[in-house]
Amino acid sequence: TVPSSPSQSLLFLGLVAAVCLGLNLLFLTIYLICLCCCKRDQDPDSKQPHSCCVTWMAVTAGLICCAAVGIGFYGNSETNDGVFQLLYALDHANQTLTSIDSLVAGTTLQMQGGLEQHLARLNEVLAPRGDYVQTLKLVEQLAGSIVLQLQGLPGWGGVSADLTALSAHVAFVEYYRWLAYLLFFILVLTVCLLACLGLAKRSRCLLATMLCCGLLTLVLSWASMAVDTAAAVGTSDFCVAPDKFIMNQTDDEISAAVAHYYLYCDQSLSNPFQQVLTVFQRSLTTMQIQTQGLIQYALPLFPTAEKDLLGVQQLLNSSETSLHQLTALLDCRGLHKVRGVWVGTQLWGPPALPPALPVSHQDYLDALIGICYDGVEGLLYLGLFSLLAAASFSTIICAAPRAWKQLTGRDRDYDDMDEEDPFNPQARRIATHRPPRGQLRSFCSYSSSLGSQSSLHPPAQTVSNAPVSEYMNQAVLFGGNPRYENVPLIGRGSPPPT
């Protein structure tokens, strides 16, 4: 059956990776069973090829492991860069929305608070002139109209809070994702080092530890492969049509119109807030004209009204500055700095932007580039790392039993050797580690009843002792112990050494 939803598709990819893990473990189990059951004769001619096979398998696995870790570091860094670019875009968009709310709140407070106080005092001062009082009422009505229009603007506080929560959640997940992969890389390198040390030192304990850690790392590699593949496919699906995904999140016509305007940002599209901004500008211009007339004609007759009239003029100038800033923030071209974005745009290539337009405030484009370029590329490299790591540790696990069998066979050969054999390498190692003794035990004894070194004495010499004593003195001088191999054979009671 074909998955019917995106979540089911991603779950299907995870199940595919789980099936691959099961097949990998099944293959390793069959291989180990065949290796244990099929015992071949270990003749001397067949030991060297098996040793070379184990060596080459270990070298190949080590090279693949190092290449996988290098690719993994690069992919982890690219993914981290893409996520941080997304976080930067979210923070900048959050600042934009916060600035809009701040301008609306500040202008509303000026119109309802400071302007009304000045108009109330001017009504008392200019009460003798009815025409001036009518002008003040007109200014008050226009201020109320501006406040009413500003209240019609959507409040971005909820969106800003959502962006803040989303940014914090993404930063939290990304930090632990980056740290988990870093620890995973260290584990992979540690297991490879254990494998090299176990083969170099011929330690069965290190090989057993490496085998257990290798199985764990193999499972983690396929789990990482499932997560990376699902994340890359899901992100790629979003990057194919990001505008369609965002439009599907709108639940009413006003939100859909606003989203359509900011996503497409075409010259033929009108700003959904254009009417509010137009009424704001016209009302503010009329208020400024009326206030300027009062300053010009009423101020010479009523000097006490100068402070309040100048205060009204200052508030209107400040509101005009807020109007220009609000117009720039609510215009899509002022936000994106580019015309005709995103839908139908080729995302898998360098964005074609006019060189004369600044691009530092393209929050939407920056977020898409961070996710669809660096993020997806990093996830693909992490998936390749997981695949190479699984192949490397499968090779190591296949080589470990052969190395173990060689070490066991070599120890068995050493155990079969006679400790009294002077050509036994193990006996030589023991002899070199023993402290020097005053007397040596002869390999060829002339009496079977001599059981200890204290009972060994040099035989009596029947020929001239001059050369013998001279040789023994030289032996004592250079070696520390007298030797009897070159003592004349007469009276020695033993056959000559081979």
From TrEMBL:
<feature type="transmembrane region" description="Helical">
    <location>
        <begin position="379"/>
        <end position="400"/>
    </location>
</feature>
<keyword id="KW-0407">Ion channel</keyword>
<keyword id="KW-0325">Glycoprotein</keyword>
<feature type="transmembrane region" description="Helical">
    <location>
        <begin position="54"/>
        <end position="74"/>
    </location>
</feature>
<keyword id="KW-0868">Chloride</keyword>
<dbReference type="InterPro" id="IPR006990">
    <property type="entry name" value="Tweety"/>
</dbReference>
<feature type="transmembrane region" description="Helical">
    <location>
        <begin position="206"/>
        <end position="225"/>
    </location>
</feature>
<keyword id="KW-0406">Ion transport</keyword>
<keyword id="KW-0869">Chloride channel</keyword>
<feature type="transmembrane region" description="Helical">
    <location>
        <begin position="12"/>
        <end position="33"/>
    </location>
</feature>
<dbReference type="GO" id="GO:0005229">
    <property type="term" value="F:intracellularly calcium-gated chloride channel activity"/>
</dbReference>
<keyword id="KW-0812">Transmembrane</keyword>
<dbReference type="Pfam" id="PF04906">
    <property type="entry name" value="Tweety"/>
</dbReference>
<dbReference type="GO" id="GO:0072320">
    <property type="term" value="F:volume-sensitive chloride channel activity"/>
</dbReference>
<keyword id="KW-1133">Transmembrane helix</keyword>
<dbReference type="GO" id="GO:0034707">
    <property type="term" value="C:chloride channel complex"/>
</dbReference>
<dbReference type="GO" id="GO:0005886">
    <property type="term" value="C:plasma membrane"/>
</dbReference>
<keyword id="KW-1003">Cell membrane</keyword>
<keyword id="KW-0472">Membrane</keyword>
<feature type="transmembrane region" description="Helical">
    <location>
        <begin position="178"/>
        <end position="199"/>
    </location>
</feature>
<feature type="region of interest" description="Disordered">
    <location>
        <begin position="418"/>
        <end position="439"/>
    </location>
</feature>
<keyword id="KW-0813">Transport</keyword>
<comment type="similarity">
    <text>Belongs to the tweety family.</text>
</comment>
<protein>
    <recommendedName>
        <fullName>Protein tweety homolog</fullName>
    </recommendedName>
</protein>
<comment type="function">
    <text>Probable chloride channel.</text>
</comment>
